[in-house]
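note to self — DONT lose this again. spent like an hour looking for the file last time. sequence + predicted structure for the chain T wanted, 450 res
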Amino acid sequence: MMLHDILKALGRPLESSDDLEVSGSDPQLKTRFRIGEAGAATLAAVGLMVSDLWAMRSGRSQKIRIETSAAAAALRSSGYMRRESDDPPNPWDAISGFYQTADHRWVQLHCNFPHLRDGTLAVLGCANAREAVESALRSWQAAELEAVCIERGLCVSIVREPTEWRAEPHAAAVDTLPLMEIEKIGDSDPEPLSESVRPLSDIRVLDLSRVLAGPTCGRTLAEHGATVMRISAPHLPSIESLVMDTGHGKLAAHADLDTEEGISQLRDLVGKSDVFSQAYRPQSLDARGFSPADLAALRPGIVYVTLSAFGHVGPMSERRGYDTLVQSATGIAAEHGGSKEPRHLPASALDYITGYLAAAGAMRALALRAEQGGSYLVRVSLCQTAHWLQALPRVDAEDVPRLNVDHLMMTSDTPFGRLSHLKPVLELSETPPFWERPTVPLGTHAPEWP
């Protein structure tokens, strides 16, 4: 059922000739949500898209295999990464997390970037200490706090019960959307895929994203042979451990879109690109000339991937958000916590699954471009993924053994030091996935295609 949902969104039915094996079942992690199986279905769809592109290049099919336990591990890959010299800093800020307000409601503060932390502390008028935040929140009503913080572009959410979320107008708006959208947005000549050594050889991808979901899309395309360039700017905050986790296989360059030079650099890169992947809020790049329509005119045949927190429709569409905030807003954290205080899932399931969906959508659009021509828009969001997970039946997860990932680990020598980390978990018989480049710090390379 899960794979059917994804393939329906991709517009690609499961064929009798597909040589696909998905083994294992949930629970793999201690949650009633079927995140392991959902991850396995998503990676299976990625495998089918890779296989389709490979068949276009070589005329040959291949076997696709994914274990549900490996897929579950892939939804928390940053947690398995270790550095030989020392462990990367904890990405979770000391004051991020759950708190109770004066009306005995739970709220979540997301303060993992300095400007979000400082802005939240300014609203609360308190010191940068958890005890001070707890005290300050005792004088706030939850709805008032959320409204004030959202108005200031901060990341705070009421922890809603599932039924409470279903009554929200935004939930109804998201329900009108499929799991993923692939839309033709312009005409261009077909760009057939020539014979080559990897499924995504000669495909260039611009990755304008941060944290997990968007960068996971780029990392996935890189592990199947795409040349992926991560675009950031010196003034944008980042989380080192997540840069390391999602940077495998990528180039990394700076292009400051607050400057004419940066805009010119990015336009030059787009003109020689195949995929443009961005994970900022809908329409946030339009004013700088990087809307889907702008890029379809600049580079006919572009595949424009956009990934957002709350989707592109509904009253919350312009709201900033991350995996954990969407869990809190949509009722997942409340349900997972049970009768006690809310808890986040034991994996960044919304982030990683949405990133893999985006990669599958990008590859499906590349296949359509090869056959029919055209520019394409691929849209996904954490909130659409959350609704999909919530619609799946639950499992009993009372006694779940610790996930064994020893056979899934590899080591890499990188500018960050020697890293131990998860390898690509999807198994393909003819084109096993791997990364050609080690993960590097942001801004390592010039903003030029090699």
